[in-house]
Specification:
The complex is a heterotrimer of chains A (about 650), B (about 110) and C (about 200). Chain A is mainly α and about 650 residues long. Among the domains of chain A are: about 40 residues; about 210 residues, Cytochrome c oxidase-like, subunit I domain (Cytochrome C Oxidase, Chain A, Up-down Bundle). Chain A has 20 helices and 2 strands. Chain A has a two-stranded antiparallel sheet with strand order 1-2. In chain A, helix 4 packs parallel to helix 6 and helix 15 runs antiparallel to helix 16. Chain A is globular, with a radius of gyration of 25 Å. Chain B folds into 2 domains: about 70 residues; about 35 residues. In chain B, helix 1 packs antiparallel against helix 2. The longest helix of chain B is centred in the C-terminal third of the chain and has 27 residues. Chain C has a single domain, classed as Four Helix Bundle (Hemerythrin (Met), subunit A) (Up-down Bundle), CATH 1.20.120.80. The N and C termini of chain C lie far apart (about 65 Å). Classes of the chains: A mainly alpha (about 650), B mainly alpha (about 110), C mainly alpha (about 200). At the A-B interface, helix 8 and helix 9 of A face helix 3 of B. Chain C: GO terms for molecular function: cytochrome bo3 ubiquinol oxidase activity; cytochrome-c oxidase activity. Chain C: Keywords: Cell membrane, Electron transport, Membrane, Oxidoreductase, Transmembrane, Transmembrane helix, Transport. Chain C: One of its GO terms (cellular component) is plasma membrane. Chain C: InterPro entries: Cyt_c/ubiquinol_Oxase_su3, Cyt_c_oxidase-like_su3, Cyt_c_oxidase_su3-like_sf, Cyt_c_oxidase_su3_a-hlx, Cyt_c_ubiqinol_oxidase_su3, Ubiquinol_oxase_su3_dom. Chain C: This is Cytochrome bo(3) ubiquinol oxidase subunit 3.
Chain lengths: ~650, ~110, ~200
């Protein structure tokens, strides 16, 4: 009996590596500390009522961003482990198998569990406020999306300590990811972790699309929407068309592994190439999903901090929608070397290069917005300015990669690695940082410390170039991606050391940011204006942080930069100094619900059961999922009203006119 | 059952969904459009390529019939844009890209399997 | 931000109150379009892999058309009756509404019965899911549609219970509109299944 348990445990838990034991211990300690802390300070009820069951988009947004920052830490540690292993030729820091796991989880975590939630967090915090809405279209679904994402991410991360991590690359290509070559549970964790969070992403896409279409403030026509909202609109369009493809692809891979299917196997008529074809139909639009909101953020920031209106609004909108559309026509450039023939490669090479045109339009629009502006270099603007050169270099190397014949040389080399890190860090991460610094006061009511932010900024930027510029050269020298080590005689040693130094500089930058957040929280100065940046759009017309109902009075809009125009009119004396006392009305609010977290937990249980082929557990989980659906369908809670007097009181105290 | 066939008013404007007449027309058209390809295929009346044409054209026509007579895509609320139609067209375009693109890309890769 | 602006270009300006049923209808419509993409991807997989029979049977060898034709007309009729249910609802007749829903439900269940029967026969004859790439993609494509219909049946049952308890109100009306849209959609998907999988398979 005891032997059996020992046997089971040694297979169930990941064993044999001191690094993992260390991580196990720290995870266990942190978990115990959190539980003990919550119990000691009697915060369980508070946590449940105010956060876990909330349907308030602002709180959900904060939870997304928090999760994203934690995941950035995890993915960043993965990156540093890889760079450490590659610092010196023939270094023995990670086993090759462990190295495979680390690069797989690094990619998955960074794209799906860092960039995506960071983006959704900003969607949630900003979009309803920017369009003058009380909440998103489906607040309950919004909470469900978050918990599906969170528990999907947790399921994926569980593979670190239980069962073993996936190790077939971030997109899990068959045949390597098939049962035959990868019998452990790692790939199942991959499939279910992404599948569960993917359903959440799809729901978010639908939710924000309906929100933007239907819930804009009176007078805000589509062509008067703020640029960030436009970018979210374009992103949601891509999400709803791309994510179902991911769902199907992963489901088919799972059927291969679980039920003996022959979609992507080497025998039985399966075709692994079909998987590669399908996954990139999602994968390529996915990179536009994460970059477009960053474009939206830059557009907001650049106009506010240049104290000008955005240059070329209409061309921005068209460029964004063209990118969204063309993004569905470029997927084959990820596998030019697959052998689909010259006509296929020619088509996809040209469509890929076409994307550079609308992107170039946007770059010029940002530059022209800055031209003759009175620029303030606050943190959001710093990141925006840093983005432009980084993204131009990344974009140009992208065009090089799009040249199909030349791609046979670059394919899967460090040149490619350098390219996509340049656009994903220089574009996406810089963009989301700009957004985080810009909207942080709206989320929490205080600014993040400027000095620490600048230290972090410079460490990030210098580290970024030191890390990735050498990688272009390494790629041209023949270093391929996913190699766990290399020999002295390759001559790759010096550049790899430089690259590793750069990676550590970015690690230091992240530590600065962590300190920055803690420091700013401790020494926070309450923002009483609600409009700390002298901004242009509706979210800055309400107090920071926003009250739970957002707008006491639904605003009416007649221009693209409503707050900016209002301030100008006020300054010109065209508006009365003080508005007449508004007449408040009761505000309808949706009720909190515990179903989303329970629903997602059942999904987690089902995923865990499938991962280990424990059918009873999977069935139990799915039954729970169904029960939650039934419970929701039968529930006819229609929310509640905040009485007008209470709104009046809250407004008066928040705006300091009590 | 309903005998006022053109008595289609609902609770309010947004819910006024079709009439009995439109459902019956849609139903009959759908049956006809199902029978045509069935007859063509089961009796081997044509060569493969024309048969595929007949099958696809009747399928698409039937889809259109259902969209108009069953799903009422023509209805709109007030003077708002037809978001549902736009989304549908874009969605169908993407499906076309997914299917035809896969076939095109995989033609060369399918050889030998 | 001018308060005096005209609000003509916006349908509802009742201080942030949006018709929840209207939102749900649009949201559900978009969900259906994501489902279109989902089926589109499965179709793409089927079309690419359906020649890969690995020495096993092809569609022409195993498809039994009589059952499939019966399924087709049953589902088509159920789509029609679900429309009649909506008509009854618009007239405010609860009993008639429930009656048509029950008819639709029975037809849907008959469809599922025939499909399960077809699958069982195939598996019994040794042409199961893991026989070849063709069989895997066939079972997945048709089975996913069947799963959708089954989910719809469960959902319809829930709605019948809710209707008999609460009658027709704004909430149940929205739900009936949504499920009837869903049901029509499943019928439309079946048309393409019939065409691409069965008719092109046996021709």
């Amino acid at each position: 009996m005891l032997e059996n348990i020992k046997q089971f445990a040694s297979e169930f838990f990941v064993t044999g590596d001191p690094l993992i034991y260390g991580a196990d211990v720290s995870i266990a300690l942190v978990t115990i500390a959190i539980f003990a802390g919550l119990t000691y300070f009697k915060k369980w009820k508070w946590l449940w009522r105010n956060w876990l069951t909330t349907v308030d988009h602002k709180k959900i947004g904060i939870m997304y961003i928090l999760a994203a920052i934690i995941m950035m830490f995890r993915g960043g540690v993965d990156a540093l482990m890889m760079r450490t292993q590659l610092a010196i030729p023939n270094f023995e820091f990670l086993h090759p198998e462990h190295y495979n796991q680390v690069f797989t989880t690094h990619g998955v975590v960074m794209i799906l569990f860092m960039a995506m939630p960071f983006m959704f967090g900003l969607f949630n915090v900003v979009v309803p406020l920017q369009i003058g809405a009380r909440d998103v279209a489906f607040p309950y679904l919004n909470s469900l999306s978050f918990w599906l994402f969170f528990l999907g991410a947790m399921l994926f991360n569980l593979s670190f300590v239980i069962g073993g991590s996936p190790d077939a690359g971030w997109l899990s290509y068959p045949p390597l990811s098939e049962l035959q070559f990868n019998p452990g549970p790692g790939q199942n964790f991959y499939i279910w972790g992404i599948q569960i969070s993917g359903i959440g992403s799809l729901a978010t896409g639908i939710n924000f699309l309906v929100t933007i279409i239907k819930m804009r403030a009176p007078g805000m026509t589509m062509m008067k929407m703020p640029m960030f909202t436009w970018s979210v609109f374009a992103t949601c369009v891509i999400i709803i068309f791309a994510f179902p493809i991911l769902t199907v692809t992963l489901a088919l891979l799972f059927l291969d592994r679980f039920a003996g299917g022959h979609f992507f196997t080497l025998d039985g008529g399966g075709n692994p190439m079909m998987y590669i074809n399908l996954i990139w139909m999602w994968g390529h639009p996915e990179v536009y999903i994460v970059i477009l909101p960053a474009f939206g953020i830059f557009s907001e920031v650049v106009s506010v901090f240049s104290r000008k209106k955005l240059f070329g609004y209409t061309s921005m909108v068209f460029a964004m929608m063209i990118i969204a559309f063309v993004s569905f026509f470029t997927w084959a450039h990820h596998f030019f070397t697959m052998g689909s023939g010259a006509d296929v490669n020619a088509f996809f090479a040209i469509s890929t290069m076409l994307i550079a045109i609308p992107t170039g339009v946007k770059i010029f629009n940002w530059l022209f917005t800055m031209y003759r502006g009175r620029i303030r270099f606050d943190l959001p603007m710093l990141w925006t300015v840093a983005f432009i050169p980084a993204f131009i270099v990344g974009g140009m190397t992208g065009v090089l990669l799009a040249v199909a014949p030349a791609d046979f040389q670059y394919h899967n080399s460090y040149f490619l690695i350098a390219h996509f890190h340049q656009v994903l860090i220089g574009g996406v991460v810089f963009g989301y940082f700009a957004g985080m610094y810009y909207w942080w006061p709206k989320m929490f009511g205080f600014k993040l410390n400027e000095t620490l932010g600048r230290w972090s900024f410079w460490f990030w930027n210098i580290g970024f170039y030191v890390c990735f510029m050498p990688q272009y050269l390494l790629g041209l020298m023949g270093m391929t991606r996913r190699v766990s080590t290399f020999d002295w005689d390759t001559g790759w040693g010096p550049l790899n050391v430089v690259s590793t130094v750069g990676a550590y500089l970015m690690g230091i930058a992240f530590i600065f940011q962590a300190i920055q957040i803690a420091y700013s929280f401790k020494y926070r100065e309450k923002d009483t204006t609600g409009d700390i940046w002298d901004a242009h759009t509706l979210e800055w017309t309400i107090p920071s942080p926003a009250p739970e109902y957002n707008f006491a009075i639904t605003p009416v809009v007649d221009s693209r930069d409503p707050l900016w125009v209002e301030k100008q009119r006020r300054a010109a004396g065209k508006l009365p100094k003080k508005d007449a006392k508004p007449k408040y009305e009761p505000i309808h609010m949706p009720s909190n619900s515990g179903i989303p977290i329970v629903f997602s937990t059942f999904f987690f249980i089902a995923g865990f059961g499938f991962t280990f082929h424990w059918v009873w557990m999977a069935v139990l989980g799915l039954a729970g999922v169904l029960a939650c659906l039934v419970a929701r369908s039968m529930n006819d809670d229609e929310g509640f009203y905040i009485p007008a007097e209470e709104v009046e009181k809250t407004e008066a105290s928040l705006r300091g006119t009590l | 059952m309903a005998n006022h066939s053109n008595h289609s008013h609902g609770h309010d404007e947004a819910h006024a969904h079709g009439s009995l007449k439109s459902y019956i027309i849609g139903f009959i058209l759908s049956i006809i459009l199902t029978i045509i390809p069935l007859v063509v295929v089961m009796n081997h009346m044509m060569d493969p390529i024309p048969t595929i044409f007949v099958i696809m054209i009747t399928a698409i026509l039937q889809f259109v019939v259902q969209l108009f007579f069953f799903m009422h895509v023509r209805e709109r609320q007030g003077n708002q844009p037809r978001w549902n139609v736009m989304a549908l067209i874009f969605g169908l375009a993407i499906v076309l890209v997914v299917v035809s693109g896969s076939i095109w890309i995989m033609t060369y890769n399918g050889v030998g399997y | 931000m001018a308060q005096a602006v005209s609000q003509n270009d916006h349908g509802h300006h009742d201080h942030g109150h949006h018709d929840p049923q209207e939102l749900k209808m649009l949201g559900f419509w978009i969900f259906l379009i994501t489902d279109v993409i989902l089926f589109g991807t499965l179709f793409a997989t089927y079309v690419v892999l359906h020649h890969n029979t690995a020495g096993g049977p092809s569609g022409a060898d195993i498809f039994e058309m009589p059952g499939v034709i019966a399924e087709t007309f049953i589902l088509l009729t159920s789509s029609f009756t679900s429309g009649l249910a909506v008509l009854a609802m618009n007239k405010g007749k609860v009993k008639q509404l429930i009656g048509w829903l029950v008819v639709t439900w029975i037809l849907g269940a008959a469809f599922i019965y025939l499909e399960v029967d077809e699958f069982a026969k195939l598996i019994h004859e040794g042409h199961g899911f893991s026989g070849s790439a063709f069989l895997s993609s066939f079972f997945t494509l048709v089975g996913t549609h069947g799963l959708h219909v089954s989910m719809g049946l469960g959902w319809m049952l829930l709605l019948i219970i809710q209707l008999s308890r609460r009658g027709i109100n704004d909430v149940t009306r929205g739900k009936i509109n949504v499920i009837s849209l869903y049901w029509h959609f499943l019928d439309a998907v079946w048309i393409f299944l019939l065409s691409v999988v069965y008719l092109m398979g046996v021709m």
